[in-house]
Design goal:
alpha/beta; Aminopeptidase; eight-stranded mixed beta sheet; 32% helix; 19% strand; AstE_AspA_cat; Peptidase_M14
Length: 305
Amino acid sequence: MDTTPYPIGTPGTAWGEAEKAEWRSRQLRRRSYADDVLSPIERLRERFEVTQYGQLDYAPDSYPLFAIRSREWRDELPCALVTGGVHGYETSGVHGALQFVDAHMAGYAGRINLLVAPCISPWAYERIHRWNPQAIDPNRSFRENSPAGESAALLRLVAPLLDRFLVHVDLHETTDSDESEFRPALAARDGKPFEPDGIPDGFYLVDDADSPQPEFQQAIIEAVAKVTHIAPADARGEIIGSPMVAPGVIRYPLRSLGLCAGVTDARYKTTTEVYPDSPRATPEQCNAAQVAAVCAALDFALAHA
């Protein structure tokens, strides 16, 4: 077990502003939100409504936030939300959302209104990180008076539609860097000891512990299993510390934890977790798994509405 202290801060002491500034100085831009996300969104304007729902100003950088909506929006139809890039380093969430829009969204016209926010955390996307510049995890910050601008912007976007969502799919990844970087950084930031755990090899889902939908989750697992492998439970019968309640499925109390998948009152909601570091998965498979998950979720919800 690696017991080397995290290189920022003092073990056992939570970070102050100086430590956060040091951490921020180490985060280098490694890819382009404009090239990878804004350019594809611009091309989608021909077929869908594209709206700016916020602006993140992190001097010297500024990031417009865009959502893609069904052009044939009808007030009598239920709504579905697809979110990606809550954690900017989880690449297939962003590109899977964009690929879904490009290849499949039009096929749901007239059946359900779709709202897709493909990259909620563009600063973190460029730096391949989990947090925003304030060392805040947006995916623990979806609550009233959120300290994360990324989370607050999405909450404002969905607020007018809260009681109309039927389904929400939030696209994520679990990566080897969770164990090598992000969990150690979290422990250091909070002044707590880092307790190593394992990384599950394969795709899994997080259901809502407060309103579980086991048949919905299993329909998604069955669809994704045709694309990539499903994570098994560990020796304790768990996936990342939570009991596996069905093949490839665990449960969290989504809303009380401030998770993105809890931002609506949708009956059917899930968080996907792709494993991009598996030797058995390619980037293309990871994107395809996200697309398959969204399509399966929508198809099940519509069939059981």
